[in-house]
């Protein structure tokens, strides 16, 4: 695979959900893909639908060691990165800190710290080459304070604004930076984050494949960001960006409060 002439992509959180679909779309668009995730599913040779990954790396990106191991594995492929999709992320519903502060700290470690760490390790080679795309999976949650998902919303605001800042810094570098901002999407996120009994957990969900395609289309078109999925997501993000934070937070609380969807 190291001698392939196909462009190389790296996707984190690639074993399921939006990350899996990003990897599959990239493979379908003639990229070799390094896939990374913490669970064993990422090592399934059929993960990309019959196209073998360039490399499958099982690692926990919540730790610095996991990030550094992934960067080392990517470099071992021996080829420049054309697309770096920093998608790995988790959430946690309920009041802060809830029963386990460690859950919230894990969100910060994975959604924020690992994103900065991995970008810091892999981006310099892309800048030196003067070519490539950097896709961050943020969320429309980035536009609003989120009671009962406080750490998750804050983490996605961090990711989105980090992406927007890097885009300006890299405007003359040849690197495209895009923030992908999905709304509620049909993945395991809501089950894993204990949000199934909430209003947001009961809302209609967008197809992760379509979300992935919109994100990559935006990246290849050179757009700074894209609110993916249903039209209501664009309306919600636009309203949230223009109302006072206190009003937006009160509305988000009605969506996220435990038991609100029962």
Q: Specify the structural class.
A: alpha/beta
Instruction: List low-pLDDT spans.
Output: none
- CA-based shape: globular
Strand order of the largest sheet: 3-2-1-4-5-6-7
Q: Strand portion, in percent?
A: 5-15%
CATH fold topology: Rossmann fold
Explained architecture:
It is a single chain. This protein has 262 residues and is α/β, with parallel strands linked by helices. The protein has a single domain (8-256), classed as NAD(P)-binding Rossmann-like Domain (Rossmann fold). The chain has 9 helices and 7 strands; from the N terminus they run βαββαβαβαβαααβαα. The protein has helices at residues 17-28, 64-77, 101-129, 150-169, 189-192, 199-202, 208-220, 231-242, 245-256; strands spanning 8-12, 32-37, 55-58, 81-86, 132-137, 175-182, 225-228. A 7-stranded parallel β-sheet has the order 3-2-1-4-5-6-7, with helices on both faces. The longest helix has 29 residues, at 101-129. The model has no long low-confidence stretch (mean pLDDT 96).
Keywords:
single chain, 262 residues, alpha/beta, Rossmann fold, 7-stranded parallel beta sheet, 9 helices
Task: Give the arrangement of secondary structure elements.
Elements: E1 8-12, H1 17-28, E2 32-37, E3 55-58, H2 64-77, E4 81-86, H3 101-129, E5 132-137, H4 150-169, E6 175-182, H5 189-192, H6 199-202, H7 208-220, E7 225-228, H8 231-242, H9 245-256
Parallel strand pairs: 1-2, 1-4, 2-3, 4-5, 5-6, 6-7
Helix pairs in contact: 1-7, 2-3, 3-4
In short:
This protein has 9 helices and 7 strands, in the order βαββαβαβαβαααβαα. It is of the alpha/beta class and 262 residues long.
